[in-house]
Each structure stands twice: as structure tokens, then as C-alpha cells.
Amino acid sequence: MAVVIGLTGGIGSGKTTVANLFSDYGIDLIDADIIAREVVAIGSIGLARITEKFGDSILLMDGNLDRSQLRAAIFSDPHLKNWLNQLLHPLIREKMLADIDRARSPYCLLIVPLMVENNLQTMTDRLLVVDVDQQTQIMRTQQRDNVSLEQIKSILSAQASRQQRLDAADDIICNNGDNQALLTQVAQLHQYYLALAQAAK
Fold first, then answer.
1. Which of 28, 30, 110, 156 could pair with 103 as two cysteines, CB 3.0-4.6 Å apart?
2. Domains (ranges, CATH) in the chain?
3. Is 201 annotated as a binding residue?
4. How confident is the model at residue 77 (pLDDT cuts 50, 70, 90)?
5. What residues bind ATP, as annotated (predicted)?
């Protein structure tokens, strides 16, 4: 089985950019956000259970889950949110493990935005944190998502603090600088992870 490198970072830190740079080296990416969509896709157990609970009105015309309606429903009811988490988290974890098992590159990246918050670094051999200062996070998120400062601050307060992530990290990529600095850091870590994977054989 491939060595598993966990990849996380706060909103606007550049996780996707970093993950894509590793992908350019032929490294398999396992993305929790993509898996979270797959476990509620048409025909999935997840979608069947959600439809049983909420009725057909939770679906869009094409049969897909109406995510905004579901978000609104659980936002106002902690019990429903808890029910949904208990349904989806095991399905997501199971799919992550299956994808890790199928990984064919020497090491793979498990990308989980809320890795530290949910203690999912237990599924990894090492944890890589993409770190930026808060001002950069806010600026990038505003540019990318066109959301208000209040919304961003609310998201930041719901995530682990920068220090909590750094305390959990085995490796850190600093993404405050330019693209060249980022490329250099990824290249160095790629070589390091290849050596780890070789030693683990």
C-alpha cells in the first residue's frame, strides 16, 4: 500500500494548487470534498437514506441532491446535522480507505480541509500543512469566492486555528510567497516522500 500523506490547510491557503503540483509528478490524489459528493450521488446509499429522511422534495428535478436545501435544513436543526454526519462520515471514510488501497503511485495525498478538526490525520503516515497568514487567507478567499469579510471570518472561526494545524503538522509548505517558492517546496517534499516510500517497501 502507498505511503499516505495527509494534506490540509485553512480556507484560501492554496491546498488545491499544492495538490495539483504533486499530481503533476504522477501522485494519486484522494480528495475528501470529491468523495463527499460521490457518496450522495444518484444511486448511492447516502442519497437513498437522505431521501427516506427528508422526502423527494430534497431532490432537484434531475434526481440529484439539492445541496442548498439540505444545508438550510441542517443549519437550523442540530439533531438533523448530527444525523447527517453519522450517515455520511462513515461512508466517506470507507471510500477514502478504498481509494488509498487502490493508489498506485509510491505515495498518495489524502486531501481533507478539516483534517485536524476531525482528527483524520490518524489515517495518514505524515501530515502536510499548507500555511499562510490570515491576511492572505482573507484576501484570496474574497477574490476567489466573492464573499463578505464577515462570512470569511465566520468560516475561519469554525476551522482549527493556524497554530493548531501547525502543531499537528509533520511538514509545512509556506504559501505566502510567489509560485516559484511554492514549486521549490513541492519539489523538495516530493523527493523526500519518494525516499520515505522507498524505505517503507
1. 28
2. 1-27+106-201 (3.40.50.300), 34-104 (no CATH)
3. no
4. confident
5. 12-17
